[in-house]
Each structure stands twice: as C-alpha cells, then as structure tokens.
C-alpha cells in the first residue's frame, strides 16, 4: 500500500458525495446512498447531469445483461467503493445469482460497518440471517459478497473471488467505474487479460476518462495531482481508440466505446428536458466539455453464445 493508494481510496468519498448531492436534487432515485455518505457539498448541475448519465448507463447495461442471461449470471464490481447498485437492483427485482464487490480493506471495512448498522441494507441480503458471514472487512451471504483485495494482485483477487464461490463458467459481467485509470497500465493489462482468459462468457463495463491530451484533460490531471492522486493509467485514456485497443489486445473480442457526450445525446428528449430543468442550468458548453472527457466501454467475449453482442450501449 502506497501513499498514492491512500489518496486513491479517498476518490470514493468524492464519487459518493457527487452521487448523493445529485440524488438529493432529484436527478435519480437511490434510497440507499445516504447511508454511506452524509452532508455532501452541493455540486453544479453539469456535475450532477454527468453523474446521472454515468449511473444510468452503467445500470442500463447491467440490467440488459441480467435480462439476457435470465438472472443466471454473476456481477463483479472491482473498486466498488460505496456503490449501491446491488440494493437498487433488488428493488427492481432484477437480481443476478451473485453480486461481488471488491475494494481495498480500508474501504470495505467502512462499507461492512455501515451495512451491519443499517437494517435497510442488511435485510436485503439474501440469506437466512444466521447464514450471513460478517467479518471486519468482508461479508458473505447467498447472493452478495463484499471482499477486500488489491485488484493488481491477481493471486489474491482469484483467492478472494473463490471465497465467494464464483463460477468461471457462468456468464459474468465485470465493472470498473473510475478505477482502471488509477492502475499502472501493466496491472490493468494483466487484469483484463486474466479475466478474458478465465471467464469464457463474460462482459466488461468500464467507465473512465478519455480525450485527456487537451487543455481540459491537463487541468483534470493537475487537479488530481494536487490531491496526491496520480492517474497512472492515463495512457489508455488518450482517446476512444486507445480505450478500445487496450481491451482488444487483452483478449476481448467485441468492444464498443462511446464518449459520454454521445451517451447523453442518446437519452430521450423528455429525460434530457427533465434533467436540464431541475436546477438553473445555463452552462451547456461546460456540460459538453465534461461529457467529452469521459467514456463508457462495453466489451464482451461470448463463447457460450448468450448473444451478449446483441447488447449495445
Ligand atoms: N466504483 C465506485 C464508484 O464509481 O462510485 C468508486 C470509484 S472511486 C473513484 C475508485 C475506487 O477504486 C476506490 O474505492 C478505490 O479504493 C478503488 N481502487 C483503486 N485501486 C484499487 C486497487 N488496486 N484495488 C482495489 N480497489 C481499488
């Protein structure tokens, strides 16, 4: 664990704070996020719309994956932070066989404590209550697992996934939401290759920075450096093509990547109107600039023909 790793863990607080601020202002509904974070600073409408587009599009792909596999699947969220997708999917009655979250122990310890304390979270875990195994940093129930691991250490990660009884032959979708960019390329390449080799029917959702070579990108990098957070994997975030290439060279057959500007554009007109009316919003250019610097990636390898390639962003 390095100084940079400590700073990287704090990025989870930033993400939670932005998500809660947006939820409090009605951008989307999430009954669980306020258990994980309190009193967020108010964020600008552009940031809230950016977060809405991120959460909405990642969840859309997850739901399509669950429907396609009729729930006979697994979800693995790497660098999950305080993500609340498991509980939100439960409310939508869209559940995979197993939902696994991985993060550094300092983060999973806090998440574990909050889940243990909040009945609304704990009671959603599928299990006879006695069957839930809770330790300081980990939780195992029938369908939800929270484990601590450094995702750069593949042996450790593999052992932890095995402790969740992961089945490498079941369709599995991996998520990294603003995570790979904090890993040196050597580590993210190894991780992507390992997953594509180990899981014959799998998909990958990656959300992170893109187009980082221009002035706006440079400012983002400098701001993070000020907070001791280095974007070590930024090489892969130069363009949509560099993002696609890193997945292709690591064994992913079908790869699609869209700038968030396009993802936002594809939302229905009525939804965009709703979002843009929630608060006084007159910085359309700033929203465009922000969305241009993030992308959503959907990759899949479909050896067992679940027709994952029918799913598109
Ligand atoms: N994915 C969550 C979300 O979108 O709300 C959290 C995003 S936060 C920006 C990045 C998360 O990745 C942090 O919780 C951090 O601890 C985790 N992370 C970064 N590098 C990691 C590593 N090597 N092993 C495990 N977790 C890691």
Automatic annotation (TrEMBL):
Task: Summarize where S-adenosyl-L-methionine binds, as residue positions.
Answer: 54, 79, 150-151, 177
Record has Coiled coil as a keyword: no
Give this protein's Gene Ontology molecular function annotations.
protein C-terminal leucine carboxyl O-methyltransferase activity
Coiled-coil ranges from the UniProt annotation: none
Q: Report whether S-adenosyl-L-methionine shows up as a keyword of the record.
A: yes
Which keywords describe this protein according to UniProt?
Methyltransferase, S-adenosyl-L-methionine, Transferase
| EC numbers on record | 2.1.1.233
Query: Can you tell which superkingdom this protein's organism belongs to?
Result: Eukaryota
Transmembrane feature ranges: none
The GO biological-process annotations, alphabetized, read as:
methylation; regulation of signal transduction
- Pfam families given for it? LCM (PF04072)
- Gene3D superfamilies named in the record: Vaccinia Virus protein VP39
One GO cellular component term of this record is: cytosol
Reactions accelerated catalytically: [phosphatase 2A protein]-C-terminal L-leucine + S-adenosyl-L-methionine = [phosphatase 2A protein]-C-terminal L-leucine methyl ester + S-adenosyl-L-homocysteine
Q: Which family does it belong to?
A: Belongs to the methyltransferase superfamily. LCMT family.
Q: What does the UniProt record say this protein does?
A: Methylates the carboxyl group of the C-terminal leucine residue of protein phosphatase 2A catalytic subunits to form alpha-leucine ester residues.
PANTHER family on file: LEUCINE CARBOXYL METHYLTRANSFERASE (PTHR13600), LEUCINE CARBOXYL METHYLTRANSFERASE 1 (PTHR13600:SF33)
> What name does this protein carry?
Leucine carboxyl methyltransferase 1
Q: Please name the source species.
A: Dimorphilus gyrociliatus
């Amino acid at each position: 664990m390095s100084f940079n790793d400590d700073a990287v863990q704090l990025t989870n607080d930033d993400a939670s704070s932005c998500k809660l601020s947006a939820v409090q202002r009605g951008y989307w509904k999430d009954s669980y996020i306020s258990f994980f974070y309190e009193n967020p600073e108010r964020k600008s409408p552009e940031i809230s719309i950016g977060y809405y587009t991120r959460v909405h599009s990642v969840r859309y792909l997850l739901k399509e994956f669950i429907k396609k596999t009729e729930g006979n699947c697994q979800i693995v969220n790497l660098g999950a932070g305080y993500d609340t997708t498991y509980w939100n999917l439960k409310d939508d009655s869209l559940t995979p066989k197993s939902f696994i979250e991985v993060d550094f122990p300092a983060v999973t310890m806090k998440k574990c404590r909050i889940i243990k304390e909040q009945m609304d979270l704990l009671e959603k875990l599928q299990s006879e209550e006695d069957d839930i195994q809770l330790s300081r940093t980990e939780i195992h129930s029938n369908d939800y697992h929270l484990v601590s691991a450094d995702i750069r250490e593949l042996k450790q990660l593999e052992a932890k996934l095995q402790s969740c009884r992961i089945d490498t032959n079941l369709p599995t979708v991996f998520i990294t939401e603003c995570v790979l960019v904090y890993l040196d390329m050597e580590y993210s390449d190894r991780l992507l290759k390992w997953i594509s080799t180990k899981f014959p029917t799998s998909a990958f959702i990656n959300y992170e920075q893109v187009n980082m070579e221009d002035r706006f990108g440079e400012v983002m990098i400098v701001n993070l450096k000020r907070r001791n957070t280095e974007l070590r994997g930024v090489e892969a975030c130069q363009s949509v093509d560099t993002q696609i290439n890193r997945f292709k060279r690591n064994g992913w057959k079908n790869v699609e990547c869209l700038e968030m500007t396009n993802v936002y554009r594809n939302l229905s007109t009525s939804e965009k109107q709703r979002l843009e009316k929630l608060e006084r919003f007159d910085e359309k250019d700033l929203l465009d600039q922000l969305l241009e610097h993030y992308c959503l990636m959907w990759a899949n390898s479909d050896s067992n023909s679940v027709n994952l390639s029918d799913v598109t962003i």
